[in-house]
């Protein structure tokens, strides 16, 4: 029986089961998870560990049915999931399992007040459903309503988001991909580690130039003649995650910050939509901080007049 | 009698006499030069001082004939030049004077081994004469010879340049603009301070991204989808001088460092020639680290397929 | 008549009149001020210009009575001050003049909530009077009251300070030296430029290591075995101003952030008091970003058990 | 039978077998090594992977005889070592195994021209033997000779070291700890990865301040009042490895670079010897970039007059 799990070949990790552990840093986590897998004859293909602000993450990729022609059976999956849940309880950490063919089920869009990227995503013909829009302000609720997508405001009066509420919503809507559509807050490691490689942000500069706030202003003050925007996977290093797509445009002499923003904003939406499409098609794979890409997507582009 | 010195208006400093002092940092320099100017009824418009690696530079812009309709007379100029020379001797510093209509007389091109930028400059129809080519290796001597331009190799066996020799050559050929055509050495403050705002380099990245060595490699390793090149004025801060021109191009998936270099090199030449033209036309003015530009030049461009 | 103004010799600028211009960056400022001085036969000894966040500052040091044996007369001073005020009005900038023997008249202490540095300053036998304590919270009002020093809270509910009010208070109390005694806000260029070289901060690290917030935490997380504190002049580059005094102490194995803070806080007060004393004695002079010191002060020290 | 492997308790990794893989980055390495270990009932306790300049390193800590009261038998060790060697050959990578009680067998000292640290190490009463001194110049050969320790010069005429030769020597002399006694070259990842956590350098500053070349000069130019030295484990991030010991000293006003160097050099030797002792006693353990220490060693110290 031929496997249908591997549409894009060995270049991606989509044929592996991904196990993510997030919690307090303590000994025994690696031994516990790898031991449990080996007892089930799984092969451990890769392990990554990170600590940030006291939060530990381990991401492990495994082939859980190496001797079989096909994917693990439902019973095998249930048993593994249950065993990992018990282990997680013992160790006091959060363990998640994603089997290869369970991915890309739902999309969440995170927003603040700017609407152009949200509108573009809702109008785009994506291969996955946008199930929920979450803001740290309620300004864009009407736009979500128009498209029949549930909207939640998780921010307090000053816009400070309640990330526990956010995580609950991502669970509740079975979200597999999170798109930051000009979401103007920094996600904590608690969120980033749980959705590693599955959060895409759009930043208004040609990264690695001009990370951080007010990127268009930075570009104008630096006197650049070419500016641009970047869609990238989010890591705990702000604006330094692996690059998916970029769009460049010319900065005319005398251009103001507002002029540059006006050129850039439509391209932000364009870059984010293209990045989402490439991810959802399974045509992107992160390895050692870069994205290996395939398929017919517009990863880089120059925006002529 | 109307002055013909000011084609581009108040936006540039081209209507001012520029006095540059380079040497050891000591007290008395500012007082000496400003005092000498005021005795001659000149107005001091601006003073900048910098120290780097123990070398002091003061650049002063003055209106030396503020009550006259036209420029200073030849006799006035000679007298001022002589007085400043005496002062410089007293203080043990090097003093240079450039009157507004004396500029842009000659061009020097500095090279190492790559020939594409040198060829483009020699073939371009610049408004000023390329009077000398100076290398820290002798690889490109034949190309200069073909074009009837004198070539000097100021490097030792390892390519280490003799900068005193370089400064002598720039004096001997009455050079006003220095173009770094893939010159792979860092100029010391001794040279940079004497030709502040008159040295243009081309760097193989979209600065401020990827300063330093191996910029194409850096870009590929960072996984960018858009790369480019930059021509900029040289300061003592490596690859951070004011930007003149930039060219961007798309980086296809799977592109190697060699692929990116092949796309970039013709654009390096293009950016450097355009920057030289804008400078020679007097259409560029540096203020607070940025270049104010005017005129019909291609400052930014996107290189489509 | 011999001048008594110059106890420390040519190494300091205390024998020069200092003219500070703060305002919007525009042409004509340098020409205006230097011209006005030369008409009065003053010598311009040094000029520094800076722009930050759109605020321009020029600091000019001049000898305003170079041909006289003594300082400028009261009448000459009044005339110069009045002429500069007129010029400032014309140019729309704020001009301040400090004659050499007018300095070090009064001290302001800026505070937030930590009291150890304020207490140490109020108990120290300084050569100048602490005339006012200004906070961005009112927590320390009682301490100022105990010592009979006026206290003002210029912060709003969130502690955001009203810097216009602060500048008015510094004027009203004729303040010449501002001591930041764990003032937890960043002063804007509007304040820093007006009191350049006359604001001293204490930072809880051995600068240049660990600038920015939570320096003790940074040190513990970096695993250093020696930590310390630094008193320095404040510039618009956060925690990078010229160093006055430093105190080092050992970090025992297993030390927590609280342990390190407990070791460091008494030294913060000690470093700040020593820095204030050296400044008030005229034994410090800033040149090119460093402090030249003289006199019998404890500039560096190691805190044994 | 009680194990004697664990003198310092769970805080260190000294009770684990360490497997280091260095080579080209490729898939299959993690799966291969972990699979091989699990077949032998070993527990994988920790895995770290790094890539630098195209060189891949995986360091894995395992408990290879978890069900036994004592260490693995000689036969078990031989079998595991042989199996890993076969796997390494298959994957084209270099695999090394260190069993817990095989450590700290021999010391190498790397030098250039400065002799004070080498002399101090040779005179110190270390718990392990200095088996070889390796220089990138031959200046210190006589000192090694005096102490009856073999000396090898692996540098060419310009001092460029032959690192393959260096690695051969470290193997030949069965070196477990490498001390950089003012060795003025940057070790490549090829060396650093093979001796991760077993190379100690001494740097002439209080890191993280003043990394890189000419640290004493940097300190003087920054105007610090307290300077110092640091011994640290070497990683591929220059001068950023985990800190072992530090020594601080006061910088008097007017101190020159030479003055500071004269104060610092005896402390360099002192810091390096103390760091070596703590490492050899098994009282240091690296975790997440910091060193956890125990035992009675002088990790931090202030050098009074």
UniProtKB/TrEMBL annotation, chains A, B, C, D:
Keywords: Hydrolase, One-carbon metabolism. Pfam families: ACT_6, Formyl_trans_N. PROSITE patterns: ACT. One of its GO terms (molecular function) is hydrolase activity. Signal peptide: none annotated. The keyword Cell membrane does not apply. Residues 18-98 form the ACT domain. One of its GO terms (biological process) is one-carbon metabolic process. InterPro entries: ACT-like_dom_sf, ACT_dom, Formyl_transf_N, Formyl_transf_N_sf, PurU. The keyword Hydrolase applies. It comes from the Archaea. This is Formyltransferase family protein. It comes from Halobacterium litoreum. The lineage of its organism: Archaea, Methanobacteriati, Methanobacteriota, Stenosarchaea group, Halobacteria.
């Amino acid at each position: 029986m031929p496997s249908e799990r591997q549409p894009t070949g060995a270049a991606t990790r989509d044929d592996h089961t991904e196990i993510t552990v997030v919690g307090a840093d303590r000994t025994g986590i690696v031994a516990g998870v790898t031991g449990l897998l080996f007892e089930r004859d799984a092969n451990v293909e890769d392990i990554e560990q990170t600590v940030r602000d006291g939060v530990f993450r381990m991401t492990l990729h495994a082939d859980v049915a190496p001797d079989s022609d096909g994917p693990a059976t439902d019973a095998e999956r249930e048993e593994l999931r249950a065993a990992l849940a018990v282990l997680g309880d013992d160790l006091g950490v959060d363990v998640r399992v994603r089997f290869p063919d369970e991915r890309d089920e739902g999309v969440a869009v995170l927003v603040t007040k700017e609407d152009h990227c949200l509108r573009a995503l809702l109008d785009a013909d994506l291969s996955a459903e946008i199930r929920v829009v979450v803001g740290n302000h309620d300004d864009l609720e009407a736009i979500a309503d128009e498209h029949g997508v549930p909207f939640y405001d998780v921010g307090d009066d000053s816009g400070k988001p309640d990330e526990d509420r956010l995580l609950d919503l991502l669970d509740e809507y079975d979200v597999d991909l999170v798109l930051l559509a000009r979401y103007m807050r920094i996600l904590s490691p608690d969120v980033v580690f749980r959705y590693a490689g599955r959060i895409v942000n759009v930043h208004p500069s040609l990264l690695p130039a001009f990370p951080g706030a007010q990127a268009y202003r930075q570009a104008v003050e630096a006197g650049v003649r070419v500016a641009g925007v970047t869609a990238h996977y989010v890591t705990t290093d702000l604006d330094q995650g692996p690059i998916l797509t970029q769009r460049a445009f010319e900065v005319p002499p005398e251009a103001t910050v507002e002029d540059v923003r006006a050129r850039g904003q439509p391209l932000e939406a364009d870059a984010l939509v293209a990045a989402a499409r490439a991810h959802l098609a399974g045509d992107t794979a992160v390895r050692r901080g870069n994205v290996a890409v395939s398929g017919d997507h517009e990863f880089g582009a120059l925006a002529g007049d």
